[in-house]
Amino acid sequence: MTQASQDSSSDAMLEKLKTKPGSTKELFNKFMTGLTAFFTVAILIPLVAVVFDVAREGVGQLGLNVFTERPPAPGLTGGGFGNAIVGTLITLGIASLIAIPIGVLAAIYLSEFGRGTKVAYGIRFAANVLTGVPAILAGLFSYSIVVINFGGFSAFAGGVALSVLMIPIVMRTTEEGLKLVPRGMRDASLAVGATQFQTIAKVVVPAALPTIATAVTLAVARAGGEAAPLLFTALNNNFWSFDPGRPIATLPVLIYFFSIIPYRPQQQLAWTAALVLLGIILIVSVTSRFLTRQKQF
Amino acid sequence: MVYDSATAVETDTIIRTENTSIYYGDFKAVSGVNLDIYRNKVTAFIGPSGCGKSTVLRCFNRTNDLIPGCRVEGRVTFHGEDLYSKDIDPVQVRRRIGMVFQKPNPFPKSVYDNIAYGARINRYPGNMDELVERSLRRASLWDDVKDKLQASGLSLSGGQQQRLCIARAIAVEPEVVLMDEPCSALDPISTLKIEELMNDLKQLYTIIIVTHNMQQATRVADYTAFYNAQEAKGGKMGYLVEVLPTDELFNNPKEQSTKDYVTGRFG
Hints:
The complex is a heterodimer of chains A (297) and B (267). Chain A is mostly helical and 297 residues long. Helices cover 75% and strands 0% of the residues of chain A.
C-alpha cells in the first residue's frame, strides 16, 4: 500500500466522525430534547399559577387583623381568622405528637430489626396503601373511633384524623433515611461495646436526622392542607378555642366554608387564609431543614 | 501447636480456638480451626479470597452474631473463658476485644466525640479530655488534629480517618484489637504510618490483622496464619493451613500449599 492511498482512506474515516447537521437522526435528537425540556417547564405551570393566584387575590386583605381577629358575620367586612390559625396549629400539633413517635419508631423497627422479614414487607405494603387512601376516610376513621366514643367533635378528633395521613409518610421517609446510614457506623458503634439501643439512639438516628426532618415536613405539609378529614372531626368554630376537647376552627375548613358562601368579603378572606396556609407550610419546611442541616456521610 | 523457636516460651495465649467451625445457615464457611493468639503480639491472617480469614476474625468479638443464621461450633476461648457460652454478654466481649474495619468509618460527629463515644457509653469515670488526648497520641494522630478537635471526623483524610478509628477503638482500653484489612483503602504513605503504629501499639495491646498484602504481614506480624479454601457443597470452605512465626512461615513453611501461596504461585 502506498503512502497516498493510506492517507485517502484515513480521510474517509475522519469524515465519518463528523456530525451531519440536518440529518434525520440529528433532528429527532433535538426534537426529543426539546420535548423533555418543554414538559419540565410545564410541570412548574400549575405550581406557579396556584402560588401567583393565591398571592394576587389574598395579599390585598393581608393585615395584622387577620391574625388577631375572628371571622366577621356573613355579609360584614373586616375581621380575620386568628382562631383558625391557632386551630390549625393545635390540630397539627396533636397530629404530630401522635404520628411522629409512631412513624419514627415503626421505621426504626423496619430498618434495624425487620430487614428482609415478611412482617416488614407486610407493614411497608400496608403503609403504601394507607398513603393512597382518600383523606376523607381518615376523617371517617376518627369519627367512628373518637367522635362517637369520646364526647363528640373536637380538636383532638381532628388531630387523630390527620395523624392517620401523617403516619405512613413519616414512617416510609424515615425508613429510607435510616437505610442510608452506612452499615459501618453500626459496626463501629457495636465494636466499642455499645448496645443496640445505644447504637440506634446515639449514632443511627442522629445521622438520619435530616431525613427524619424531611419526613415530618412532608407529613405536616400534607396534613396541614386537608379539609375533608376535619369536616366531621374538628368541625368548625367561629370563636376562639384552645381546648383540644372542643370543636375548633382550622384554615382549610374555613377556606372551604368561606369560598362557597355568596358573600364577597368572606370569599376575599378565604383567599387570604389560603395565602397564610401556604406561608405556614413554607415556614415549617424551611425551619426544619435549617435546624437539622449537617454534614452528610 | 508446637514451636521450636525460643519466642514460644515467653508468650502466653490470650485467645484460643479449638476445632472451631463457622456456619452461615447450613453452609460451612470455615472448618475446624485450631489456633492460639499470643498476648502483646501481632498475628496476621493471610490467604486467598473466600478462605474465611475475616470470618474467623469477626468471631473473636462476636460480630458474626449480627449476621442472621451465623453459628459457631467448637470452642473460642478468651483467657480460658468460652466466648460462646450462654452466660457471656457479647457487648462486654466487644468492650474488651475492639475492632478496626476495612473502610474507615468515623461517626458523623466531631473528632473529640468520635473518641469520647465509647468512653461515654461505658461511663468512663476519668477526665475525658485526657483520655481523648492520650488515645489520639497513641494513634499518632494528635499532632494532626489537636487544633481541630471540634471538626467533623469526616473532614479528615482517609489515612487520618483510619487512625481516628484506631484511636476510637483503643479509647475504651481493650485488650485485643482486631483489624480487618485496615489499610486496603489507604495510600502507601498512610499504610506505612499505620504499620508503624501497630508496632507501637503491640506493647499495650494484642493485635490480629487480616491482610491481603503479604509484604505487610512480613513487616508487622510476629506470627502469621495461612488460610486456604477448598471447593465444598454450596461454595468455598475455608480452613487454617498452618500458623508459624512470620519468618518461618515465609521462608520455611511446613505445608506445600503455604509455599505455593507465599511464593506467588496461586492466590
